[in-house]
Amino acid sequence: MEATGGDDEVSGELTSLAHAVSLPAECYGNDPDIEMAWAMRAMQHAEVYYKLISSVDPQFLKLTKVDDQIYSEFRENFKKLRIDVLDPEELKSEAAKEKWRPFCLKFDGIVEDFNYGTLLRLNCSQGYTEENTIFAPRIQFFAIEIARNREGYNKAVYTSVQDKEEEKGATNGGDKGANSGGEEEKGANREGEKEKTNKGGEKEKEAYKEINKSGETAM
Fold first, then answer.
1. In this predicted model, what pLDDT tens digit does every residue of 14-31 receive, in sequence order?
2. Contact, 137 vs 88, CB < 8 A?
3. Which overall architecture, per CATH, does domain 30-165 show?
4. Which N-terminal residues, if any, form the signal peptide (predicted)?
5. Strands, E assignment, 78-139
6. CA-CA distance, 196 to 115, in Å (whole number)?
7. Residues 131-189: pLDDT tens digits?
8. Which of 9, 33, 37, 113 has minimal Cβ neighbours within 10 Å of its Cβ?
9. Bridge partners for 119 per DSSP
10. In contact, 99 and 172? CB cutoff 8 Å
11. Is-contact 93 197, C-beta < 8 A?
């Protein structure tokens, strides 16, 4: 998948998660190798997903083979849950766990590793920083992120990255125009728009290949 202008920012944010992705030692039998393997997988998953919603309009992303079922079940059971900015209590309190448990168990055998530990952003307009990240079962991640994509909340990330790329392109185009004259500037802008359209199409195709290749193992 083609890198986006926000790649360096993503890498920096993920680095800050180094100790945030550590579960209590008893969960791993005090085996640091297992803990590190889990942390690396969780961080890799987060990085791949953030690149996807930065590169392609999230409304067109398909995360699993059963997105429609997940979304339908989610909104049937959690009609009023606010998903743009999550309240951890709505996920982690004892009352919340009791409500989430039947929903999650419905996807046992349908979604691979449905209860595997995954990183979930609290505020969908922000990245995977330590302060903006909590642990969630994989099916909970899918339910919330599919809803965020379909309801337009994740578009804030995509728009922000695209705006930065456009500003960069406009700055470069302005410099060329100043050196080459008015007509050449118009030509450069036309070529720039054509190139941007082509690159956008390529990014979307690559993103779909990535999500399809990952299937239900990487995601």
1. 444 444 444 444 444 445
2. no
3. Orthogonal Bundle (1.10)
4. none
5. 117-121, 133-137
6. 40
7. 999 989 999 999 999 999 999 999 999 998 888 877 777 666 655 555 555 555 555 45
8. 33
9. 135
10. no
11. no
